[in-house]
Amino acid sequence: MEMLSRDDAERRIRERAASDPAFREELMANPRSAVESELGVAIPAEVSVHVHEESGTEVHLVLPAAEDRLSDAELEMVSGGQEYWEGPGGDAP
Fold first, then answer.
1. Mean pLDDT across the stretch 68-90?
2. Cα(3)–Cα(86) distance, rounded to whole angstroms?
3. Spatial distance between the Cα atoms of 83 and 66, rounded to a whole number of angstroms
4. For position 57, what pLDDT does the model report?
5. DSSP state of 71
6. Which candidate, 15, 82, 86, places its Cα nearest to that of 43?
7. Collapsed DSSP state (helix, strand, coil) of residue 89
8. What pTM, to 2 d.p., does this model score?
9. Alpha-carbon dihedral sign for residues 54, 66, 64, 39
10. Tell me, what's the pLDDT at 69?
11. For a tag on the chain, would you pick the N or C end, based on fewer CB atoms within 10 A?
């Protein structure tokens, strides 16, 4: 399995959506399934996936959460197909 950084994973999804109309349609209709299929990863159930399409009159900016933000290493674990879990007090189950 190929390990991708978050930037690489997002780039791959954007490029596929730009070149494959059927994938773009699936990505808009069912983003979780489309991303999992394209990247070959399972997204944890507690993680929501949203896709927004810009237009000439609408721009979307995504800001990281001010608190409870995953580290780059934790994000890479998720994008690399590993499940991340940290229970109360930082304990893994």
1. 61
2. 21
3. 23
4. 96
5. P
6. 82
7. helix
8. 0.65
9. negative
10. 62
11. C
